[in-house]
Design goal:
Shape: globular
Number of helices: 7
Distance between the termini: 26 Å
Number of strands: 14
Radius of gyration: 17 Å
Largest sheet: 8 strands, antiparallel
Helix content: 10-25%
Structural class: alpha+beta
CATH topology: Jelly Rolls
CATH architecture: Sandwich
């Protein structure tokens, strides 16, 4: 196991109360999450935004995603090895109080990047892994790699526990990680950004799962856009049904590299 995560691996239980008592829902923000050398190397080797496919967020987002962690050089391979290690799973389990494991395929995760105009509407994440019906999504681990980020850029992670509830704003600073619960009340997103040429919002996304309990109903992403016209709001309300119809007749397309 790489020492890249060593400052935090033994602090899961120590941070559990901070995680559980956070508002508007359980989360913890950890600055200096990675060793400096690894964070710098990940930023240097981050894929170009033009080399990353667009996400499947339709009208609800504008960003790029690439799930192929470990295929772009030594730094991302080290990061992949670290988050898939038993020690990292132990840290997450101690923090959350639940036995969890990281998705080795990084479905929907991996490299995330947004250029000028990028946004992601407020939403709840899908809860059951598309390829493993017995896996229940439990935690999001977001690691930001934005050096010298300025407040005027926007792009803060916004979190709230209901569509109309108060929101917490978290700046996507370099080498900052957010470990957050994902459930049916963990709304999050970021507003449209205004970025100068050559600046993008970069992050690594890792999702942890646990065994799915009996009676937990599967859902797709639930979108609740803050600022939207009638058509977009109608699309959001019917999104789950439309995805189910699409998947039934066309398949889910889960093989696409995200």
């Amino acid at each position: 196991m790489s020492a890249a995560f060593s400052p935090w691996l033994g602090r899961g239980a120590e941070l559990r109360e901070q995680f559980r008592s956070a508002q508007p829902f359980p989360l913890v923000v950890i600055d200096g999450f990675l060793e400096d050398e690894l964070a710098d190397a990940l930023l240097t080797g981050f894929p170009s935004v033009d080399d990353m496919p667009k996400s499947r967020d339709y009208v609800f987002g504008d960003k790029r995603e690439l799930s192929s962690l470990g295929a772009h050089g030594g730094a991302d391979a080290r990061f992949r090895e670290g988050v898939l290690s038993p020690e990292f799973a132990g840290f997450l389990s101690a923090l959350s109080g639940q036995s969890v494991f990281v998705d080795p395929q990084f479905h929907g995760g991996g490299f995330h990047q947004g250029a000028d105009g990028s946004f992601l509407d407020m939403h709840l994440d899908f809860n059951v892994h598309p390829l493993h019906e017995d896996w229940l999504r439990t935690l999001n681990i977001l690691v930001y790699l934005n050096r010298d980020w300025r407040p005027e850029y926007g792009g803060d992670l916004l979190v709230k526990s209901s569509p109309d509830g108060p929101e917490l704003s978290i700046e996507p600073r370099f080498n900052r990680a957010v470990v957050m619960l994902t459930d049916d009340f963990t709304y999050h997103g970021y507003r449209r950004m205004s970025l100068p040429p050559g600046v993008t919002r970069k992050s690594l996304a890792v999702y942890a799962y646990r065994d799915r309990e009996d009676g937990v109903r599967q859902r797709t992403t639930r979108w609740v856009p803050d600022e939207a016209g009638v058509g977009k709001r109608l699309f959001a309300r019917n999104y789950d049904w439309l995805v189910r119809v699409k998947n039934r007749f066309l398949g889910s397309g889960t093989a696409r590299n995200r």
